[in-house]
Each structure stands twice: as C-alpha cells, then as structure tokens.
Amino acid sequence: MRIVLAEDHALLRAGLTQLLEAKGFEVVAAVDNLTELERALDDPSAEAAVVDVRMPPTFTDEGLRAAIAARERRPGFPVLVLSQYVEQLYARELLASGEGAVGYLLKDRVSDVAEFVDALRRVADGGTVLDPSVVAAVLDRRKDTPVDRLTEREREVLALMAEGRANAGIAQALVVTEKAVAKHINSIFAKLDLPADTDDHRRVRAVLEWLRF
Amino acid sequence: MSSSSLDDVRPGDVSPDGGARAGRWTVTGYAALHVLLFAPIVVTFVLVVVSSVLVVVWVGILLLAGLLPAMRGLAGLHRSMAGRVLGTPVPAPYLPLTGGPLADLRTRAADPMTWRDLLWMLWAMTFGFAVSLLAVVLFLAVVTLPIWWYGVVPLLRGRAAVDRAILTIGRTERLEQRVEALTASRAVVVDHSATELRRIERDLHDGPQARLAAVSLSLGLADDLFDSDPEAARRLINEARGTSSTALGELRDVVRGIHPPVLADRGLAGAVSALALDMAVPVELALDVPDRLPAPVESAVYFAVAECLANTAKHAGAAQSWVSIRHDGAVLRGEVGDDGRGGADLRGGTGLPGVAARLAAFDGTLSVSSPVGGPTVVTWEVPCASSSPKTTRS
Q: How far apart are CA A94 and CA B264, in angstroms?
C-alpha cells in the first residue's frame, strides 16, 4: 500500500519510514512541511496518509487542516493523524470530514508496532480509530443524550468500537464471546436509532453519535 | 480591585486645548451661580467642621453621613463648571465606595479627595468668591462693561484653573498612583512566575527526568543481556517502552500547564471550545473573538476560564454553565457562570485570587458574584488590542 508520510522531526520521520517499510507499506513521500504535504496528497497514486498535526511553516495545526482538505477533495481518503497530544476538538473535526477511514492517535502509540500497523490497516480499510485517551475523556463526561440509554456493558463495547476494534478484538478485550459482542452491537444500533445499512457505516455512525455530545 | 489604566493620564489634561471653551456670557452666568452658591458652601463647610468635632459624641457621624455627599455634590457642580470654562473635563478621582453606610463614611473620610474638597471650600468662600463677585459686578455696573467685555473670560478662567488645581489630582499624583499599582501587580506577577518555574522544575525532575533515566538503564541492561538471556532482554525493552510512554504523558501534562497546545494552534476561542468539550457539565458558549490577541493575554484569559470551569466542576454542583467572551477591538470582556449552589469567594482559596492577580498584570479586573444558593457569575475585563493574526491562512 502506498503511503504519504508527513512528520517534521527528522528522527521520527526516518523511524516511521523504516517501520512502515518493514511492515510492507510503500512510503511514496516522506515530507516535512505543508507545501510538500499538499503536493504529495494530490498524487492520485497515494492510497493513505499518516500525518502529524503540527509542522512548518506555523507549527500549529496545518497537518490536520491539510488532511481534512485532502478528504474534501478525495472523499473517503484514509488519513491517520498522529499527534504529540490529542484534542477532542480535533477528533471531532476529523470525524466530521466524512464517514470512516480516519484515525487519530498519540505519537507514543507508535511504540507498539503491531497495534500501530493494525490501526493503519483498519483506517485504510475504511474504519475509525480513536486514541484510547480521547475515548476515555468522552466516557468521563456526563451526558443527557440517546447514549444514556445504553447499559454499562454496551458503553464499553461502543468505546472499544470507537478505538477501532473489530468484533473479535472487542470480544477479546471484554473476555466474552464474539456472539455476545454482536448482540450488544445490535442493541446499540437499535438504541441509537441507526437503521440497517452496511454494517461498517453503522459502526462509524454509532461512534459519531457518541462523540457528538 | 480598582480599575485604573493609562487612559487616565491624557495629554489633554495638561494642555487644555481641546473642546469648546465657554464664551463671556456663559462664564458670567457661571460667576453668578458661584455667587448664589456662596451661602450653601459656607453652611456646608461650617456644618462639616462642626460635625467633625461632634464625631466624638457620635452625633457627628450621623451628620457627616448626610453632609459629605452634599459636599461632594457641591464640589462636583464646580468641577463641571470649571471643566466647561476650561474646555477640558475635570475628573473626580474619589475612592470607590463599597458596601454599607458606615464603610462608605469611613472611605469618604479617609479619601484624600475629601480633604481637597474641604480646602477648595475655603478658597471658594474667600478669593474664589471675590473673583466671581467681581465678574458679576463688572457686568451689572454698566459703566464697567468694557472691562467686563475684555476681562471676564480671563478672570473666570483664572478661577476655574484654581478650582481645577484643587479639585482634581494632578498628573504627577496620577502617575504616582499608576506607578504604585504597577509596582504591586508586577510584584504579584514576578512572584507568580517564580512559583510556576519552581513547579515546572519539580514536575520535570520528579516525572519525565527520572523515567527517562530508568529507560536508559533498562536499555543498557537489555543490551548487556541480549546474547546471554534474550527473553529477559525483551522483557526489559518492553518495560522501557512502557516507561517512556509514561514519561511522554507526563511531559504532555507539563506542556499543557505551561501553554496548552490547542491555545497556540487555535487561539482563545478554539482553546475555550476545547475546554468546554472536556467538561462534565454542559457548557454553553458565546465566543466572539475574531482576531488573535497578544499571546500573554490569551494565556491569562484561557487559564482564567479554565480555573472558573474547574471550580464549577469541583464545587458548584451545577447542571448548566456558560462562557461568553467578546472582544470589541479594545477591551476583552468575559463571563463564566453556572447555576450551581454559589458561595464562591474571591478572598477564599488560591484559584480566583491568582487569576485576578494575573489579569491585573494587564490592567484587567475580575469580579465574582456568587450568593449562597447561586448562581455564580465571574466576570472580567482586560483592555487589549488584537494582534495581527499569527498565522496566515488561505
């Protein structure tokens, strides 16, 4: 798979390139500034991007903005945003840029190579991957929304869905059978009024619904 | 906290050129009014002096409670007349009044301006009165009309200048007050930043520094064990990875405490929106800050909002809170409120006084309204012009 990589720290950029190539990805562009990133994202042969939030020239949020802009031009273009810190505000903006195929992770997660590569694959497959710290922050908040109708267990399942796990992964994390997970998920869809569609989109929409409040 | 700003010292006060000056008819009218007010001034002066003596038998306190405002009224009237004659306003820098009648009386009695008012009455009853009387007589005596024609305006301007000299503090005194206020707020800010630096140093020393040393140690051990016991080496590397993650998390917290990244990225409005998202209590936002503000102001106001919202979450037991911030190009005004149980006090704790001190460094003011039973509303004002946007975005 052909990946665009944007990261302004030379060491991290080299490390990430090495890591991705070792895991069978092809890094078509490894850039360190906004202009080059925009050019690389316009390359139609790129299949996904891994983008740092901050980079030159202003070192604020140009990476995020560029990723969102790219998804406007190419709907559903998979983007995994890596950041030194995670902000709910940015997670929402990213999620609002289309259904699925986005991820937002802390840079430290890269140290768990298998998890990170798995996350990138899921994003490339159209899934949604959110950093556990964003998920935890949302969980902490009291809400008065349709999400309140969920049971404690269903909320746990939804949180793991938001982290981008498949049913098998959720079952493993909660030590239940996959069948039980599927049952919970169906119940979540029902409670959030998400009518049958393709299953993947419903998952993303359930997560969106949950983040919205 | 008193609100004073550099605007209080205007060049116009020392070179009274701006504004329309009164003509000879108007100044004659004022002179006539001065003459008519002679009797009230004398009566008030005598009563004030007598009451001050009677304070020892308590009756004086009652009398003064009524007389001091009357004296201010008379002085105020003359201030505005002198202002018209000179063409520049004559400000009345009294100390702000607070609370009950007794406290107000004490404030008034201790106000140096009150003593100036008394001094001014002495002048207004004697030479000042003579000048005004002369102006009126020159006009009424018909034969002296030519003298009146040319002389009345300088005469009354002279009197008004003396009135102003006594009735308002001079530029020097205002600058002295300003220097005093700045010295106080600088001391607080210096103190605050020293405390902050110590806290940051301690946080870094106890957290990330120690952990990174441990990472380095684990990796060294792993290197050593690599050939003899690869399993143990792998365990050590895993451990090191976990420790470095924790160190990164701690560094993030330190950075957030110094300058939140989202504030740098998005400015005040964006950062406050992000704060609101993290709140357990729903926060209604009304943010109207079109431009980026100077970074120190953004930071101080951000931490003010963060402190207020943290208080709401911790103490208020509120179901709803709101934040409104508006920048009109010159002044940033904001408000954080909640429908909780109230009882917040600017004097209690360290959070709000700290915020007030930080805002004072920018000539900002903060006030808290929080009756027991709620609601709590914290409002602040910081004079500041917007800086040019830090980023150029298409």
A: 19
Query: In which residue ranges of chain A is pLDDT below 50?
Result: 142
* Structural tokens at position A111: 């140290």
Is A111 an interface residue toward B (CB < 8 Å)? yes
pLDDT tens per residue across span B258-291 = 888 889 888 999 999 988 888 878 889 999 888 8
Domain boundaries, chain B: 3-169, 188-258, 264-393
> In this structure, what is the dihedral angle of CA atoms B333, B336, B337, B338, given to the nearest 10 degrees?
170
B391:A60 CB<8 A? yes
Cβ distance A60 to B245 less than 8 Å, yes or no, reads no
Reported ipTM: 0.70
The domain made up of B264-393 is a member of CATH 3.30.565.10: yes
Amino acid at B176: E
pLDDT tens, position by position, B318-346: 888 999 999 988 899 999 998 888 877 77
pTM beyond 0.90, yes or no: no
Torsions phi, psi for A33 (to 5 deg): -150, 170
pLDDT at A167: 86
Rounded to the nearest 5°, which phi and psi values hold at A26?
A: -110, 115
A101 near A123, Cβ under 8 Å?
A: yes
* pLDDT value of position B231: 93
Of B245, B277, B280, the CB nearest to A89: B277
The whole-angstrom separation of Cα B323 and Cα B379 is: 10
Query: Which are the contacts of A170, defined by CB distance < 8 A and separation ≥ 6?
Result: A157, A160, A161, A181
CATH number of B188-258: 1.20.5
Give the pLDDT score at B7: 39
Look at phi and psi of residue A126 and say left if phi exceeds 0, alpha if psi is from -120 to 50, else beta: left
